[in-house]
Amino acid sequence: MNPLVKKEIRLLLPGFLIGVALTFTSWLIFNGRFESNWNWVVLFVSLVACPMMAVFMALNSFGAEISSGTFSNLLAQPVSRLKIWQTKISLLTVAMLVFGVLWFSPFFYLRIFFSNSPDNFNDLFNLFSCVVMFALVVFSGALWTVLLLRQVAAAFWFTLIIPSAIAAILVGVFIDKSNELVVGIVVSALGIYSLGGFFYARWLFLRAQDAHWTGGTIVMPEMRGLAWMKTNSGTRRSWRPRAAQLVKEFQLHQSQFVLAGALALLHLGVLAEGKFGHIKKNSSTEFIIQIFWGLWLIMPMLVGAAAVAEERKMGTLEGQLCLPAKRRTQFAAKFLVVLFLSVLFGVLMPLLLEGTRILPDIHLQVVKDYAGFRASYGWQWQMSTAQAFLWNCLEQINRCLPLLTLAGMVAVIGAISFYASTFARNTLQTLGPAVLGTLVTGFVLVGAYLPEKLINDPLWRGWLAYFIGVPIVTPALIGLAFWNYKHVVVGWKMIRRNLFALAAALALTATLTTAIYHRAWEKLTPLEPAHDAARFTLSNPPTLLEQWNTSTVRLPDGRIWMDDYTYNYAFNFGPPNPLAWLLGNIGATPLAGGHFLDGSNWVCVVRGGWLEHVGIKADGTLWVSESPARRERLANGGVKMTKAGNLARFGSETNWSSLAWGGLTMLLVKNDGTLWRWGATNWDNKLQWPGFRTFTPYRLGTESNWAEVFLLGYEPCLRKTDGSVWTPMDRWTQWNWNGNQKQTLELEPGFSVGRATALEHGRWLSTTRSRNGLECQLGISADGTFRIWANQEFNNQSHDYEWTAVDLQFGKDTNWLAVAASNEKVVTLKNDGTLWLWHFHHDYSRGVDPVRDEHEILDVNPVCLGTHSDWIAVASADGAIIGLAADGSLWYWPLERPSYFDQIYSYGNGDNSHFEPLLDMSRKPQFLGNIFGKSD
User: Fold this and answer.
1) Residue in 161, 158, 156, 164 with CA at minimum distance from that of residue 186
2) Does the predicted model carry a pTM greater than 0.90?
3) CATH tag for 535-930 (out of 3.30.700, 2.10.260, 2.60.120, 2.130.10)
């Protein structure tokens, strides 16, 4: 191969390879499985970074020669200039053509093969025209600007600004004309500009001289009066080496000040056009005016790229290192000036011109929810001084977070470009690694916060990677940059060492983050404390019921112990603990202390609504709280929650047999088989709930063959004496239990029940619901086997999911006693007193397939939960289970983050925010109390 061709290929290859790698992100725009959280990253890479790399490739053809100081040698080669020109232009054309085809092919393929709409073909043609015109403008503009100015940074801006200014002027002049005419004029003008620029670049190269253009170097003009003052200040000379160092650094970036001034003037012109021109709504011109400020984000990259590489190019770095000044002082001066100019050009200038419109809408969602919740209810919580201080600090940070985010982005771009400059020989050579480093950093930052979007089982979640990674990676980058800065000669050996050190820093970050997130120190301590002597036996065990944060234990002798608890991270009756919220300390806190109810002949006691209790005794009497719990305002503006009154008898009847809770209404069955309803069917939540005592039960329907009413999960179910099961067909029922048999029974206007055949087979010791793709019903059969007895299937006729009866057994064991679950995690109790955890993990990226999902969960093997074997009963809770030990102690076993945890951070938004606590929840059980510890 011709040596000249080889040299040109090596010149274009780095930027070409980076650009080709970035073009593959265009396919992700149309990927159906692509996560919306990453859309902005893909769009930025495809629509901003790829065109930027095209500009760099075009600049690199002659810019690399000029930046490397080989342009004079190129002109002195024993080859005609016309031959050199043809070689460079041919290879650059091939590189740009391949790059453009790879970038455009996803749009072409998906528009042609997946849509026949004429509008799509028109959009495709318009996109193709824009791509071709952009390539021609960049191709010619990069050639003539580099050859004329002999400065790559200035050429970069002129390549972008001149055609943009031509297009903006023409659109402003012909704004009242039709869109077709305006587009035709702009395309014609840019075509003439591209053609003229190409021939002008050819003319410049064929007549090029070793000396730069006669216009001189683009620098800041010097005031004559200031020069006179410097001349006459020799007698009063004072030694200020640090000030001189800073002045020298600012002088190094004089060209950036000139470019920033030109960009500011152009920006003012664009703003004037948008304010005084007749810009059509939703037009491309309006879009360009709105995003024009984004060009300021390129300034930090140019500032950082020139910091060290420009010194190497000019040959002044070696002399600077020989000065009688500490190298770390010189390095610090360079780095601080880069950060200052990055913030000045990337934040202050666009804010001065555009205002706060450009700030990203980024806030701490939990702080917004806290303020919204507090404002909605019109009262203040009673908080300690420390809690109030923490919430005030979070609120102040939240107000400044948009500005801090933009400043951080700009500073990161400048710092990465500065780091790339420390192992590059010139500014142009720095730009490619700076762009790639910025994109990789953005990908790592987003991936560190949302690792579940990359892998199914992430090693951590949330912000913890930032708190660990930034203190590790930032000093590593600064140390590497300082080490690179002290070396005048750079090469692949230095780059390899940098890559190895960065890989080690990232590996250390990942290891520490994983260990800390999963609370590795808990492995060094006992999982559970010792239990006391047993007071219950499995031969005559108590029953445990958990319902809406109320634990109820019914002893074999008919006594009932109750206790209410709240989560320590939720907006229940006060603000969450900021520290618990931050660290993810999920747990339950008893509210009032457990107590035994009066009497020893209780059949059941359940929650009635949210604020009181309802129960039935063995003698058929009905009992309800004397008064519901209420919120009371304190003198200092805070709020406290009062306790519900003691249970007192309601009415004189003695034939009540069963009841079930359904919001602010109760369903009850009498011994004579009649069905009754009690409470409010439609209540305004803004009003104070008066309690069930203010309502009178009334009969539903005319039938008298109802056997019982019971809860399945949180849904009421009715069983008749013939064994048929019926469920309400209203807002109570989350899923359709009725299958294909649409037998319905209207009990009163607006309230009907439908037969649920899926619930009518088998007798169960214990049941629960689990989610594995679709929800399924699990249960312990009377024969001691653990089975799936109902599953969801999609009904194509009703276009809804319906429960279908199935009969699938887990394993061969026949000694199971009880089951409880929280979504994908299920806990079963064996007759030897041990607890066993089943993790039915579902890969949601593969979609939902009931047959496949059933077989997968049947293959799951359980693991023993805890170290004790004296468990008596278990019950499901939100994100956890509650276990009752033989000594009467209750334990809260966290299994996963509760659903309520997400809801409190999406208050008023309708969707969940992306908050993740710093640490994973603790796997240790939390002691809730002992039912024999306190007795009334």
Assistant:
1) 164
2) no
3) 2.130.10
